[in-house]
Amino acid sequence: MQEAVKAAEIAIPFIFYDGTNTPGGTVRMKKGDFVWVFLDKSRKVGAELGVGEQANATRAWARVGVDDLMIVRGTVIIPHHYDFYYFIMNKSIGPGGRRLFDYSAEPPEKSAASPQPLTGGLITAAEAKATKGLPDIATLEGAAEDPIETKVVDRRWYERNKHIYPASTWQDFDPEMDYANQIRKDGGGNTFFYSK
């Protein structure tokens, strides 16, 4: 059952963040994949889209490594070495009482029967490809999620701007922390007030 859950596909919509929100798209992942795999796939999307203001943005994204990137889920920086399965099975709660990765912990339902050919018994090449093909990414769990919830951030940008809002509110994931009841304070000890 654990392997079936880990093999289940999910969709993770995301943005690239460098002080502004740049649409990134949606990445197809498995629940058992590690965060660094997501960052590698998002890096490739960045190269394809040529995200950034540089004239050679495509080449810059092709050279960037996953260690130079980080994923910020809400306001929590997720370390590279965790897999999504960890957050799903532990139902990890982030600030505001929302689950960090709100995906089902149940194995996917098996399809009742293999699709029947549309023509009278013989399967055409197009039908064979359609039955073998992957499900549309828009039908995967998580595809309708708000992309702003998942930010892909260049670590160098974060280091230069971590004293400026909103990066000043981001915090590293700690499995021992109770984020739901946490009282957030700034560097001066003043309590953050958020509206819901």
Order of helices and strands: HEEHHEEHHEHE
Relative helix content? 25-40%
So how many helices? 6
Shape: globular
Termini gap:
37 Å
Class inferred from helices and paired strands? alpha/beta
Low-confidence regions: 111-124, 127-131
Strand-residue fraction?
15-25%
Q: What's the mean pLDDT score?
A: 78
Rg estimate, integer Å: 20 Å
The figure for the number of domains is: 1
Overall strand count = 6
Largest sheet: 6 strands, mixed
Summarize the structure.
The protein has about 200 residues and is an alpha/beta fold. Helix content is about 25%, strand content about 15%. Residues about 110-125 and about 125-130 have low confidence and may be disordered.
Could you walk me through the main structural features you see in this protein, from its secondary elements to its overall organization?
The protein is α/β, with parallel strands linked by helices and 196 residues long. The chain has one domain (1-108, 122-172). It is 26% helix and 17% strand. The chain contains 6 helices and 6 strands; from the N terminus they run H-E-E-H-H-E-E-H-H-E-H-E. It has helices spanning 2-7, 35-49, 57-63, 84-90, 125-132, 155-161; strands at 9-17, 21-30, 69-73, 76-78, 150-154, 171-172. The chain has a 6-stranded mixed β-sheet with strand order 2-1-5-3-4-6. Strand 3 (69-73) and strand 4 (76-78) form a beta hairpin. Helix 2 packs antiparallel against helix 3 (57-63). The two termini are 37 Å apart.
